[in-house]
Amino acid sequence: MIFHRRYFLLWYPVLFWSFFQAGCAARLPASIPLAEEQRGEILAHYQSFQKRDCSIPLDADISLDARSFGKNWKSTGFFLIQPPSRLRMTIVDPVGRPLFILIAAENFFTLVNTGKGEALVGSAAALAGENEDFAEFRAEDVISLLTGRFLPPPFLLTDMRRDKESDTFVWLVFAAAAEKSHNILFDPDEKRIVRHIFADPGGEILLDIRYGPGEENSGTCSMPDALVITGSAVGGEVTLRYDLVMPRGVIPESNFELTLPEHYNIRRMEGDSLP
């Protein structure tokens, strides 16, 4: 592997581009069934939440704090997000020079380590082969997770349950396949996602994202101000903070294109059909 594993620690928030480490297992929080009349009310809140048009391009300054295996990394950078499936993430050094660049356009990505002159290029499907737990993730799913949204189709709502520790919050359970589930803690009063847990069939938490409240940045669409990411796939804790979020017009496609220098050591994921 041309990238040392510690460099991939920076990319935990960008889920399917990371090679994950094993950590301690945790189980899904306790919940209780909803009464039938409650289910109808919660479903209406969910459908109202989903009808919002949140396809707004965003330019965000970020900071990352990653703790894993007794080590700590702090970095700053920025996101460019063009929904539904274009993302650019740049991590910079203290004087603003790019250290790492990740570009995802549709379901292809380029991950660059400028200091080492290295790049990893391929498709999400090929990279998912490195960890089959995340094989179903697409670029649009990662953008939904980063912005505190529900996952788009083919993820379907399969169950609704009341959180055992709260009279207000409810768990909405989604799945695209029977093996794994996305358990989303939803606050119907505040109309925001509080927590997102990705779990295996036995209920082990692979990925656990807790969202800060954030503020509205366009109409009724809000962005979390921070994400705290844990779970057995992370092997530690990553905090992603949105220091400044600016809605934008359409971001030029050139921002999601990158020409690599000829001297770079480029690893192409086997089995890709690259454009």
> Are there runs of 5+ residues with pLDDT below 50, and where?
1-24
Shape: globular
Spatial order of strands in the largest sheet: 1-8-9-10-11-12-15-16-2-3-4-5-6-7-17
Average pLDDT over all residues: 81
Given the structure, what is the number of helices?
4
- Kindly name the structural category: mainly beta
Radius of gyration: 19 Å
- Biggest β-sheet strands, sense, barrel: 15 strands, mixed
* C-alpha end-to-end distance: 23 Å
* β-strand amount: 35-45%
Q: What portion of residues is helical?
A: 10-25%
Number of strands: 17
Listing every helix as H and every strand as E from the N terminus to the C terminus, the arrangement reads HEHEEEEEEHHEEEEEEEEEE
Question: What would your notes on this structure say?
Answer:
The protein contains 4 helices and 17 strands. It has a 15-stranded mixed sheet with strand order 1-8-9-10-11-12-15-16-2-3-4-5-6-7-17. A two-stranded antiparallel ribbon has the order 13-14. The protein has helices at 5-8, 36-50, 124-128, 139-147, and strands spanning 31-33, 58-68, 71-82, 86-92, 98-105, 108-113, 118-123, 156-163, 170-175, 181-187, 192-199, 205-211, 215-218, 221-223, 226-230, 236-247, 265-268.
